[in-house]
Specification:
Elements (H helix, E strand, L loop, with lengths): L6 E4 L3 H12 L4 E4 L3 H8 L10 H8 L3 E4 L10 E4 L14 H13 L5 E4 L7 H9 L4 E5 L8 H6 L4 E5 L8 H9 L4 E5 H32 L3 H9 L20 H16 L4 H14 L1 H8 L2 H5 L3 E5 L14 H8 L4 E5 L13 E3 L3 H5 L2 E6 L4 H4 L3 H7 L4 E3 L7 H6 L3 E3 L4
């Protein structure tokens, strides 16, 4: 495929690293730019600042088609350039678009008149139309919706479910190189106006949040009426109105960054144009409530009194499995809420800031974290935790309480061993 032209990527945060690698895996010659020379050197040697299953393997297999550079002028050889800088958010879920806008301006100054530029970074509705108005007919601008999921990003980038592409005129054909790029991924392509594509990403996340909120609410009710959510969920998946792939796994509310940012965006749009977004407020309140499920249970069962002067064990720091990210992590929220207690923690990938948590000891294994603990809480459903010998945990910790909101452990086995096992949803 390389004879069709070199594909450029500008901005090598999580998004740019994953999509540039996926494009190389699909057979394209790729030029990936970032203005941080140290990062470019690390990437060229296969040292990545993000952790994703399959990323290292993809580099070993397809890295020969991928060239990293800190020289923006090199992008001039590309007739298709993707803007792939992750947009950071603050604690109020406001996006900082300034770095993205600076990168776009730099890339556009290098792009020729027949270059197609596709923005993958998430932007608010109206951003691309405004940008296109400034450009006029200088080049062809598109907005390609990214649907990466932390912990499964490589798989979804190489084998996407579909592509949504925002265009100034959806009826016009794509440029030849862009068309061949989209075709190479062998998935449906939905061309739509800029604003539709920008809102499409938000709509996807809103429907996901709806499923998360409904699942968590009903799962906690199961605990009070002695029902079992894990008996209910399989029946729901067979309802065609809900579907076999519906998100029906109970958990500790929303985490990461994108979902909460998108909810805040909907609220801002509703306030600006006079729409009703009270359902979004309800989702946010539900998430905040569920994030404290472990904290409430620790108080409810009197475990914090037993832990005074002792230690508690925590398995999992990342906000979800298969990622290093701790953004809005329920684990860190719990540690901050109980900052006066001593903890022993572990995580296969994520780490904590020791200066922020002076009473937290990071351990190299789940069993080491459980040693001497009065209670164990499983805060991230890493599959590695499911294989830990609970007999060994029984010997290691004097406490007998396990809080496992995600049901990653075998609850029946834990109870047979004499643990008091507490699970969200049953």
């Amino acid at each position: 495929m390389s004879e069709r032209g070199v594909i450029g990527f500008a901005g090598l945060s999580h998004l740019g690293i994953i999509y540039s690698m996926a494009s190389a895996a699909r057979g394209f010659s790729v030029l990936a730019f970032d203005d941080r020379p140290d990062l470019v050197t690390d990437l060229s040697r296969g040292r990545f600042p993000v952790s994703e299953p399959g990323l290292d393997e993809a580099f070993l297999k397809h890295g020969a088609r991928l060239r990293f550079t800190a020289n923006a002028e090199s992008l001039a050889e590309c007739k298709l350039i993707f803007i792939t800088l992750d947009v950071p958010t603050d604690d109020s879920n406001n996006s900082n678009l300034a770095p993205l806008e600076a990168l776009i301006e730099r890339v556009l100054s290098m792009a020729g008149p027949d270059t197609a530029v596709a923005i993958m970074s998430q932007v608010p509705p109206g951003f691309c139309r405004k940008l296109a108005g400034k450009l006029g007919s200088a080049l062809q601008l598109y907005y390609q919706v990214e649907t990466l999921v932390f912990g499964n990003a490589m798989e979804r980038a190489i084998h996407p479910e579909r592509y949504m592409v925002g265009c100034e005129d959806p009826k016009q054909p794509f440029p030849e190189l862009y068309r061949s790029f989209l075709d190479a991924f062998e998935c449906p392509v939905f061309a739509m106006r800029y604003e539709s594509a920008e809102l499409c990403k938000i709509a996807i996340n809103c429907f996901l949040v709806s499923s998360v909120s409904t699942t968590n609410t009903l799962a906690e009710i199961c605990e009070t009426i002695h029902a079992d959510w894990y008996e209910i969920a399989p029946a729901l998946r067979l309802d065609r109105r809900i579907g076999p792939h519906a998100y029906l796994n109970p958990g500790l509310g929303l985490a990461g960054g994108n979902l909460e940012r998108d909810l805040a965006t909907v609220q801002k749009l509703a306030a600006e144009f006079g729409s009703d977004a009270r359902i979004v407020t309800a989702w946010q309140q539900s998430s905040a409530y569920m994030r404290d499920w472990v904290l409430r249970r620790l108080f409810q069962f009197g475990l914090l009194e037993d832990a005074a002067g002792a230690e508690l064990a925590m398995w999992g720091i990342a906000y979800k499995p298969e990622t290093h990210s701790t953004k809005n992590s329920p684990s860190l929220a719990l540690l901050r809420s109980l900052s006066g207690y001593r903890w022993r923690t572990c995580d296969p990938v994520a780490r904590i800031e020791e200066a922020e948590f002076p009473l937290v000891r990071f351990c190299d294994s789940p069993l080491s974290a459980a040693k001497g603990a009065q209670a164990l809480v499983v805060m991230t459903p890493w599959k590695e935790f499911a294989s830990v010998s609970m007999e060994s945990v029984l010997d290691a910790m004097p406490g007998r309480d396990i809080l496992d909101p995600y049901r990653i452990l075998d609850g029946g086995r834990c109870r047979d061993l004499g643990f008091r096992y507490h699970c969200l949803g049953s």
